[in-house]
Amino acid sequence: MIKINIQKKLHMAGGDTALRMNTELEANSFTALYGPSGAGKTTLLKILAGLIQPEHGRIEVNGQTWLDTERSINLPAQKRSIGFVFQDFALFPNMTVMENLRYALPDRKDERLLLQLLEAVSMQNFAQRKPDTLSGGQKQRVALIRALVRKPQMLLLDEPLSALDNEMRTNLQDVLQQLHREYGLTIIMVSHHLPEIYLLASHVLQIQHGQIVKSGTAGEVFGWEQSVNSITLLGEILSVDPQGVKVLVNNQVIIIAAAGNWQIGDKVTIACQAADLTLKKLL
Ligand code: ADP
Ligand code: MG
Questions:
Q1: Which of 104, 123, 207, 237 is the most exposed place for a label (fewest CB within 10 A)?
Q2: Mean pLDDT calculated for residue range 151-180
């Protein structure tokens, strides 16, 4: 169980606001953080990682206290059992893939684990390559397993797949699912990509202005309906024309006659039950 109760002043463009969060996550769960830019998602990850200290708070991870401001406990980042992947996945350009991984290994002995991790992401043939000879998706795989060489309990991912094209993204989603299962990790991932959240996350925290405004499964948080005999598609409104609303769903455009105050870019669900189609705005 991961218990998080923190308060931290945030310096925003429009003045100060506070990050205030009090929540519990199951060990080995996969949580998605969803919310607009500036909501405090990265700050939360950095507080968990020990890179930013909140004014007040407690963080307890599987019975171990990482932070307790009342008792002046604040484990430094390297004593917290975490792996962290930022969006830009900063690999050392002058080192090969293997050297990058070795560098992250505390005792620099467990080469077997490195090979096993390389294999887990199908990168065993790239061990001697330098990062600038790899594709974005391959670099991201290396960054992911580099975050795992210390066998962390928790993996923090800050929009790790957002720079990748669809095929790479799908590929890496598989890798993440597999690593999550095999290594029993607790994963917290920032993502704006609803299908990805739906696929990967067992739990979603929706964050706005430094607060958790909703918490639950993707279905609960985004209000997707689940019922037998129906399918629900996720889409985005492309245009609102007299003949109907054009919605982009999985690279296809579907035209639906649906009255409503739709805006281009609205994320919507299309629910199809028997022959009835209904369009519903997300959030
Ligand atoms: P998000 O990742 O959700 O886009 P961030 O956590 O990066 O949001 O930032 C939330 C707000 O907190 C921003 O307005 C940012 O300027 C501010 N902020 C970022 N780091 C700190 C810090 N160390 N101390 C105080 N405020 C910060
Ligand atoms: Mg961020």
A1: 104
A2: 85
Q: Is the dihedral of CA 10, 189, 238, 278 positive or negative?
A: negative
Handedness of CA 22, 24, 28, 33 (dihedral sign): negative
Q: Write out the residues surrounding ion ligand 2, Cβ under 5 A.
A: 42
Query: For residue 274, how far is its CA from the centre of ligand 1 (angstroms)?
Result: 46
Q: Which of 21, 43, 159 to mutate to test the pocket of ligand 1 (most atoms within 8 A of CB)?
A: 43
Residue of the nearest CA to atom 7 in ligand 1? 42
Task: Give residue 197 CA to ligand 1 midpoint distance, Å.
Answer: 22
The pair of three-digit structure tokens given for residue 145, joined into one six-digit string: 């397993």
- Cβ distance 233 to 249 under 8 Å? yes
Q: How far is the CA of 255 from the centre of ligand 1 (A)?
A: 39
- Taking all residues of the chain, what is their mean pLDDT, rounded to a whole number? 88
Q: What is the mean pLDDT of residues 52-67?
A: 96
Give which of 151, 139, 78 is closest to 112, Cα–Cα. 151
Which residue CA neighbors atom 13 of ligand 1 most closely? Answer: 38
pTM of the model: 0.79
Taking a C-beta distance cutoff of 8 angstroms, is the pair 198, 234 a contact? yes
